[in-house]
């Protein structure tokens, strides 16, 4: 049964940020073994790291694929991070790349960046400080007659391309690359809302990384988070199910790893995984 939504009544609204330079507070980042390392991290334009690439082997920490944007006004940046949705159209409004278009691939909490994928020719023209306008569209999206499933952070056009259906058992089937148990979810737990930012899959246990195929994750992959409730903030709840998108790379710090921006959550086991290696946003946008 094809799902019906309230997309026709959602508001599409402008939000804006600018290409945000990487920042350094300390030259060192301490890894899980207590060793200090000097590594690239968040922000800027990542010329050779794109959505669809593997996210586990980069020599860096919390690397954000493509372009990282932020608004220098705190409250305007709150709006940018809250209302931007994965799949939203992004338009360059200043500089040498003015008029070029891309799309939102994720949101990174803590640093409060929105992440944008642009073609290589656009990356080569962009500069730090260039203005990027987003057509924010998607928050408030709901599935008719299935309001127990909370949808967030996804553009309705991308949502439609998922071609989701309810199976004979009454569960929503969602294609994902893997399933992550709740005990591996770390940094970001307890945040008041999952409508902004992300939280991390912890990768300090190599055996778990292989068991759950975390070592094969790519930017843009859909994953299922088991026993994870993201309906009103992030918490553990037995039987809850959430679906998210991998938005940033693995990290060297304890309690951290690839980031997940959640796009759907249910307090009960009404979402069922269909495993597919092709479950990535690059195959839909």
Our count of domains comes out at: 2
Helical residue percent?
under 10%
Proportion in β-strands: 25-35%
- H/E series: EEEEEHEEEHEEHEEEEHEEEE
Largest sheet entry: 6 strands, antiparallel, barrel
Shape by Cα distribution? globular
Q: What's the N-to-C terminus distance? A: 23 Å
CATH architecture label name of the largest domain: 3-layer Sandwich
Radius of gyration over C-alpha positions, nearest whole angstrom: 18 Å
Q: Detail the poorly predicted runs.
A: none
Helical/strand content category: mainly beta
CATH class of the largest domain: Mainly Beta
Q: Please list the strands of the largest sheet in the order they lie side by side.
A: 1-5-8-7-6-9
How many β-strand stretches? 18
Mean pLDDT: 97
CATH topology of the largest domain: tm1086 (SG structure) fold
Assigned CATH superfamily of the largest domain: tm1086 (SG structure) domain
Please work out how many helical segments DSSP would assign: 4
Structure description:
The protein is mainly β and 285 residues long. It has 2 domains: 7-136, Thrombin, subunit H, CATH 2.40.10.170; 149-283, tm1086 (SG structure) domain (tm1086 (SG structure) fold, 3-layer Sandwich). The chain contains 4 helices and 18 strands. It has helices spanning 74-83, 120-123, 156-161, 206-211; strands spanning 13-19, 29-30, 36-37, 45-46, 66-70, 89-92, 101-108, 113-117, 131-136, 149-151, 165-166, 172-176, 178-181, 199-200, 222-229, 235-248, 259-266, 271-275. The longest helix is centred in the first third of the chain and has 10 residues, at 74-83.
């Amino acid at each position: 049964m094809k799902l019906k939504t309230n997309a026709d009544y959602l508001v599409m609204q402008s939000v804006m940020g600018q290409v945000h330079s990487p920042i350094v507070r300390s030259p060192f980042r301490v890894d899980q073994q207590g060793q200090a390392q000097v590594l690239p991290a968040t922000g800027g334009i990542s010329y050779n790291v794109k959505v669809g690439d593997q996210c586990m082997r980069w020599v860096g920490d919390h690397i954000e694929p493509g372009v990282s944007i932020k608004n220098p006004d705190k409250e305007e940046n709150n709006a940018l991070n809250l209302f931007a949705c994965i799949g939203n159209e992004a338009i360059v409004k200043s500089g040498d790349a003015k008029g070029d278009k891309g799309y939102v691939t994720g949101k990174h909490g803590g640093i409060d960046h929105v992440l944008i994928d642009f073609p290589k020719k656009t990356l080569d023209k962009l500069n730090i400080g260039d203005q990027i306008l987003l057509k924010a569209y998607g928050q408030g999206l709901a599935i008719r007659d299935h309001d127990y499933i909370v949808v967030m952070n996804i553009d309705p056009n991308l949502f439609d391309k998922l071609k989701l259906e309810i199976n004979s058992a009454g569960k929503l089937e969602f294609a994902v690359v893997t399933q992550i148990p709740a005990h591996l979810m770390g940094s970001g737990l307890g945040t008041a809302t999952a409508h902004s930012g992300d939280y991390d899959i912890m990768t300090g246990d190599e055996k778990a990384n292989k068991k759950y195929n975390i070592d094969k994750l790519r930017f843009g992959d859909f994953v299922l988070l088991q026993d994870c409730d993201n309906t009103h903030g992030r918490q553990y709840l037995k039987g809850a199910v959430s679906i998210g998108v991998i938005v940033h790379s693995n990290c060297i710090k304890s309690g951290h790893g690839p980031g997940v921006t959640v796009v759907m959550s249910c307090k009960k086991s009404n979402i069922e995984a269909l495993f597919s290696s092709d479950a990535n946003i690059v195959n839909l946008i």
